[in-house]
Design brief:
Radius of gyration: 33 Å
Number of strands: 20
Strand order of the largest sheet: 1-2-3-6-5-4
Oligomer: single chain
CATH class of the largest domain: Mainly Beta
Largest sheet: 6 strands, antiparallel, barrel
Helix content: 10-25%
């Protein structure tokens, strides 16, 4: 009996030793031996990747790009310029051939490129004003290879937006416009356009900031800032969310070299939508206007007016004669603190809020005059058109 017990103990010891070695060096053998164990995954070159929605950790924005990309077009503009006269040498033979012509001149075509977004099936394309400014001819190329000429329906230099109309193509792939004010800082966005003319390109980033202004780009600035790479040729292209909804029109970049440095700016869709609707309906954009020259309340001015250090608003530094503000009784030195009950932090916010007021309607301005608060009712005028 003792002999059998020794054999059993030695066998158990050997088995435990083998199990310890296998567990330490080749744990995969234990998984293979388990009931219902799947065969090992073997990496094979060229094997298909798991689909984006398979839940295995693969992140892809292919569905959003596929939804948005067909509506993004390349915009080619041509402008004819006169080449300066080339002086002719004072030679008797040339004088006999050309008479008294002092030189030779010719017209030369220069071509530039940008991007645009098809916004409806009727052939309207939204792009930047600077892309088509002063163009003599405009051609639009779709991702499916079709091309068409286009004309400018209207433009709004104050927001650097323009609307084009294709000449013949209809039943086009239109972009899906996102809901107003749906973006948050940190949301993933994709920029689609034609950078440097290499062809349609998609870059990815996040929303870095909202409501950027004071950049000196437009009269009315309320930009989306993103780190999605935007380069020359992307102007007028689409900024979309991860689902492919249009959230903005790519407008400008901050760059010291001409290439992307991770700071790009796009016009929000809520602004672009209103500008587009006004242009399509009336051919232009009408904005509210007071006829004043406002100035930010700085700490120095706040002390001079006897205000608190954290005072906000806009000081009226000038009033146009016979303008809406003058007729409504607004005076130089008044401090505008609110418009229709909405607090105004600075000049940019005041101008933007007044611009949104329908011309011909009354707006109530909450002001400080000689340190005393009061309300002034003004009939909003129409902002004069800017030269194109």
């Amino acid at each position: 009996m003792r002999r059998y017990w020794l054999i059993f103990a030695q066998a158990v010891t050997v088995c435990l030793g083998i199990l310890f070695v296998v567990t330490t060096l080749r744990p995969d053998l234990l998984r293979l031996a388990g009931p219902g164990a799947a065969p090992p995954a073997v990496a094979v070159a060229g094997a298909a990747r798991p689909p984006a929605g398979s839940g295995v950790g693969v992140v892809s924005y292919a569905d959003g790009v596929a939804r948005a990309a067909p509506s993004v077009v390349n915009v080619y503009t041509t402008k004819h310029v006169n080449v300066p006269l080339i002086p002719l040498p004072d030679d008797p033979v040339l004088r006999q051939l050309f008479g008294q012509v002092p030189g030779v001149s010719r017209r030369q075509a220069t071509t530039s490129l940008g991007s645009g977004v098809i916004v409806n099936q009727d052939g309207h394309v939204l792009t930047n004003y600077h892309v088509v400014q002063a163009a003599d001819a405009i051609e639009v190329a779709l991702t499916d290879g079709r091309r068409d000429t286009a004309k400018v329906v209207g433009a709004d230099p104050d927001t650097d937006l323009a609307v084009l109309k294709l000449s013949t193509l209809r039943a086009l792939p239109a972009a899906t416009l996102a809901a107003d004010r749906g973006l948050r800082v940190g949301d993933v966005v994709l920029a689609i356009g034609n950078p440097f003319g290499v062809g349609q390109t998609t870059t990815q980033g996040i929303v870095s900031a909202l409501g950027r202004n004071g950049l000196g780009l437009n009269t009315y600035e309320n930009f989306i800032q993103t780190d999605a790479a935007i380069n020359p040729g992307n102007s007028g292209g689409a900024l979309v969310d991860a689902e492919g909804n249009l959230v903005g029109i790519n407008t400008a970049i901050y760059s010291e070299s001409g290439g992307s440095m991770g700071i790009g700016f796009a016009t929000p869709i809520e602004i672009a939508r209103k500008v587009m609707d006004d242009i399509v309906k009336t051919g232009g954009v009408k904005r509210g206007w007071l006829g004043v020259e406002p100035q930010d309340v700085t700490p120095e001015l706040a002390r001079a007016f006897g205000l608190g250090a954290d005072a906000k608003g806009a000081i009226i530094a000038g009033v146009m004669r016979d303008g809406p503000a003058a007729r409504g009784g607004l005076r130089v030195g008044d401090i505008v603190q609110s418009v229709n009950g909405k607090r105004m932090a600075d000049t940019a916010q005041l101008l933007a809020e007044v611009a949104q007021q329908p011309p011909g309607q009354r707006a109530t301005l909450g002001i400080l005059r000689a340190g005393k608060p009061q309300d002034v009712s003004i009939v909003v005028g129409t902002r004069p058109g800017q030269p194109r």
